[in-house]
Prior knowledge:
This protein has helices at 2-23, 47-75, 79-87, 91-125; strands at residues 25-27, 32-33, 39-41, 44-45, 128-129, 132-133.
Amino acid sequence: MNNLRQKSLSLALLLAISTASTCIIAEERTLTVDEEGFCTSLRTVDTSALSKQLRNLQQNLKNQQIALQQRVEKGAFGVLDVAITILAPGGLVYAAVKQQTHFLAKNQLAQVSTDVNQLSVDLLNFNEVNGSYQVAALR
């Protein structure tokens, strides 16, 4: 499940980049390939608009993270829940549903937190160098 979520986020970023590259092209050039098979002329992308889209994605993830944190806090099993479990008919079913909901919210929060952290690292790597943007850094 975790791997699927990571692949989904990667696919979303790829789609955002490809959409940005097709929708906000500043200059239209054909691809030039040299004799060794390397592209020597690439289409340019409005990197400020792409950066803005990535920051919007990061903000949306942070908002989702805050909402999930509130759900986790509200979903914790408390004294009232113990009383309902003991006294009410079907209390064990109530407790099971409450615990399952809390467990799912905690898992979603962990995944969204991971996504926020990964996107933050990606945004740090997407920085301006000598007037142009680099998407990936060599290590």
